[in-house]
Design brief:
binds magnesium ion; 15 strands; alpha/beta; 4-stranded antiparallel beta sheet; globular
């Protein structure tokens, strides 16, 4: 893979949120696309990515899987350094896309899978309820119920929410903290809105601790919650998460910012969680996500569900990866951010009836849409 050009693009979404893309072009003119994440995506991380790309230009890797070796980065280095893991993940995904285009095959096939038409999604309503350019949105139980009904109307068969705005450990009282009551009421309203049978996932954004996390799990059983995500940060505190899981009757999920197959393998082998959530933007990229799925799904079916509150390029690459490792769980989709989102890609992103459709054609099957970038974005090189 001889890199001849690296280009960055940012598109303002709303508030302070933007999608940042990197494109890597090879000496045959094949361009691969990936996303950079985090508040420093357009500044420090883009700089780091450009620096790594320059080193890869001088010492070309055979392919995306050799990127870390050429850069002299170990899995331990990258587990401990999220900015570096983010830059490496983006480059590996972009190079995999360019390699697939060069080979004339879809990214799913390049990653070792069979080309597929669509992948099932679960509908995360969180992004539809964050403050937008118009200011904060209503986060009452009624507003959560309305968003949940909208998720069902859009065709999602699995729904996720993140309702614990008011809670943050440490808490003064033992057991279930008073600050969790608002979130429990929102969950009850969502359950009422979606009916008894739709699987409901709850993300707690690491707001709890051992005692409150165990007490909360017991109260979530009343709303028949199927997935208990990040009561605590399972990467920083795997022992506490493991203890919560030992008390839990529902699946415990987490590790959305983790890097590398070794880490995710350890989390499942050690019984820290039931479901790990590698994110293509941090975990090492599309190739590493597939390696994680391939390593873990045979040990524990349904133990890998990719984290993807992402822009449309990462969403599509994550769909290819999920198809390649034949994920037994649906892929995340944070719907409802901005209505012009599909126009970021050409062909336009197609998400219907709770599925993402993978366009035909080599690589991702889609590119950044030039007119949308011109109207809403900024392009630069470093
Ligand atoms: Mg989460």
């Amino acid at each position: 893979m001889n890199i001849t050009r690296v280009e960055f693009t940012s598109i303002h979404v709303h508030g302070t949120h933007q999608w940042v893309f990197v494109e890597v072009t090879d000496d045959d003119g094949n361009t691969g696309l990936a996303e950079l994440a985090g508040p420093e995506a357009a500044t420090g991380i883009a700089q780091l990515t450009a620096g790594y790309a320059e080193r890869l230009r001088l010492s070309p890797p055979d392919g995306e899987a050799d990127v870390t070796a050429v850069l002299g980065l170990s899995a331990a280095d990258l587990e401990a350094d999220r900015p570096r893991a983010t830059a490496v993940s983006a480059l590996r995904t972009a190079i995999a896309d360019a390699q697939a285009r060069r080979a004339g095959i879809s990214l799913t096939e390049f990653l070792g899978g069979r080309a597929t038409g669509s992948v099932q999604l679960y509908g995360n309503m969180n992004r539809s309820m964050l403050p937008d350019d118009g200011g904060p949105r209503d986060r009452s139980p009624e507003a959560f119920a309305a968003a949940a009904r909208e998720a069902i109307r859009r065709g999602y068969e699995v729904v996720k929410c993140a309702p614990f705005d008011e809670a943050q450990s440490p808490f003064e009282e033992p057991g279930l903290p008073e600050a969790a009551r608002g979130g429990i009421d929102r969950i009850a309203a969502v359950r009422e809105a979606i009916g008894p049978d739709v699987p409901l996932f709850v993300d707690c954004h690491s707001r709890f601790d051992l005692d409150s996390g165990i007490a909360l799990e017991i109260s979530l059983r009343e709303s028949n919650v199927a997935w208990y995500e990040e009561a605590v940060d399972g990467l920083k505190d795997p022992e506490t998460m493991k203890k919560i899981r030992e008390h839990a009757t529902m699946d415990v999920a987490g590790a959305e910012s983790g890097y590398g197959v070794a880490l995710f393998h350890r989390l499942i082998e050690d019984g820290v969680m039931d479901v790990v959530m590698p994110d293509i933007k941090f975990c090492g990229g599309a190739g590493e996500a597939v390696a994680i799925g391939r390593a873990l799904e045979p040990i524990a079916a349904g133990s890998v569900s990719m984290h993807s509150p992402s822009g449309p390029a990462s969403q599509l690459a994550s769909a290819h990866a999920t198809a390649a490792f034949q994920g037994a769980r649906p892929l995340e989709h944070a719907w409802g951010e901005v209505d012009w989102r599909p126009s970021v890609l050409e062909p336009a992103e197609r998400i219907e009836s709770g599925r993402i459709y993978i366009p035909e054609g080599p690589g991702l099957g889609a590119n950044l849409d030039g007119s949308t970038v011109e109207a809403r974005g900024r392009r630069w090189t470093l």
